[in-house]
Each structure stands twice: as structure tokens, then as C-alpha cells.
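Much of what follows relies on a compact textual record of a protein's fold. A record is reproduced here so that you can trace the correspondence yourselves:
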Amino acid sequence: MKVGIVGGSNMRSTSLVREAEARSVQTPYGNVNYYQKNNTVFILRHGSESNRPPHMINHRANLWALKEADAGAIIGLCMVGSLKKGMRPPCLLVPDDYIGLWSVPTFYDDRIVHITPSLDEGIRKLILSAARGDRLKLHEKGVYIQTHGPRLETRAEVRMLARFGDVVGMTMASEATLAQEANLKYAALCVVDNYAHGIGDEGLDFRDIIAGDAARKGRDAAQKIIMRLAGEDAR
């Protein structure tokens, strides 16, 4: 079975992209560029130029392309903010559930279909096994909450979200829901690289987050874990 991986531009330097065959597929929802090496199919979530903001990501095209490429198991690599003081960045989380109540896409625009969303436990166990060898702290369960970007959340919103979830992001719920609609198994590895607005003592600026030491350590760890899952040497 082929494995599909949806990740950010930080994976561009790995052999999954550098040594892969670049391909393009036209889906009913738009064109998608992806990279295939052996039994791994990789999609850059923010587009081939890595400049597509989160609210403009074409999730339907991405997931359709993975299905067309016969990727039966999908792993999402997500950068997230911590909603809990005790979940200190940088660390890793493999969510076991999620909340996505806002603007979640669907493949079913012309008929009524109600799925019961979930994350695949088998894929979760594979990710956990690959992540346990890393030096970053690993949280084996948690709830991911998806908000609608591109802006970050207000302090009041974070206080509310922290009552129900552990991390906040802008992409995973969309991918997980569409994957299940397409009969694809999906789970995610989340890199916690910042505290959400108001949780930590420092101010929150997106440019500082992506340039910070926590983000760098998290990206390095995530690359190695994803490469392990793909059966590659981390290099």
C-alpha cells in the first residue's frame, strides 16, 4: 500500500522531494503537483511555491490527488500551537480526536452524506512507533482544534478553545474529514512549536514563531520521523 504524506515546505530538502519524481494530476477541484518515490506520495500542503495561505489551501484537490495516486494511508504533518501550559513547545503530539466546526470542506456537494469523523488508530500507532525514538517529548493523545485562518486566535478564543482541546491549527480537520469521505485512512503528527495567544508569557508573532528555536527543533524532529515512516534514511 502506498503512503501519502501531506506536509509543509520544511520537507522540501528531504530525499522524499529531492530524489522523487515530480508529477502533476488534474483533479475535479484543480491541478495538484506531487512527488512520488517508491511507495510514498508527498504533497506540499501550501503549494509547490509554498506561498498558499491556510484558508486558500485546496484540500479537496490534494486529497483527491492522493486517492488517484492509490495512497491508501495518509499522514498529515502539522505545525500547531499549544493550548495547555503543560504542553511546552517544542514537543510532539499524535492526536486521537479533533474538533473542526468551521468551514470544513466536503466532497458531497450534490447529495446528503453524513460521515462519522475519526482518526485511524492503525496509522496513529505507526506514527507513535516512529516518534518514540525522538528526543522531543511525545504526547500520545490529544484533541486538535481547527480554526479558520489566516489570522491567529484572540486571547478570548484561546481561553475558550483550551477548555475543549490541546492544540490549535488551521488544516488537519479538513484533511482528516476529506480523507474519511474518500475512504482513505488518516492520522497526523503535530509539531507543537508555540504557545497559543495568551497561554505563554511572551507575545505571539507568526514571523517569530517560524524563525524560532522551538520551530527549528520541531521541524528537524518531524523530518526524521516522516522519513522513518517512509522507509528512508533521514538526511
